[in-house]
Amino acid sequence: FRSASLARINIRNSKKVFALIDSSKFLSKGITTIASLTEVDTIVTDDGIPSVTLHEIRGLGVNVIVVNKV
Q1: N or C: which end of the chain has fewer CB within 10 A?
Q2: φ and ψ of 20, to 5 deg
Q3: Which class for 40: exposed (0-12), middle (13-18), buried (19 or more C-beta within 10 A)?
Q4: CA–CA separation, 24 vs 14, rounded Å?
Q5: Radius of gyration of the chain (CA)
Q6: What are the two backbone dihedrals, phi and then psi, of residue 50, each rounded to the nearest 5 degrees?
Q7: How far apart are CA 67 and CA 6, in angstroms?
Q8: 3-class state of residue 57 by DSSP
Q9: Phi and psi at residue 63, in whole multiples of 5°?
């Protein structure tokens, strides 16, 4: 949990926040939350993200870049 605390400090002190998130993470519940989606400027994820989730995140004003799985 120490690394999560350090990540939160870095986010608070950043001008822009980018998150690289595997699409499978949108379907699971984690142990800890590092940041809310509204604290992130841009998310980069793969094309496995559910379209409903993609539209919900974009509706929050978050830029989402979807890339093809290799």
Answers
A1: C
A2: -100, 110
A3: buried
A4: 26
A5: 12
A6: -60, 140
A7: 28
A8: helix
A9: -75, 130
Q: Phi and psi dihedrals of 23, rounded to 5?
A: -60, -30
In a 3-state reduction of DSSP, which class is residue 48?
coil
Reading the chain (70 residues) residue by residue, the pLDDT tens digits are 677 788 788 788 889 999 999 999 888 877 677 778 888 999 999 999 999 999 999 999 999 999 997 7
Residue type, 20: L
CB neighbours (10 Å) of residue 18? 12
What is the amino acid identity at position 23?
Answer: S
Give the global pTM.
0.80
DSSP code at position 27: G
Token pair 């379907």 is at which residue? 27
- Block residue for tokens 């590092």: 34
Token duo for residue 39: 């604290």
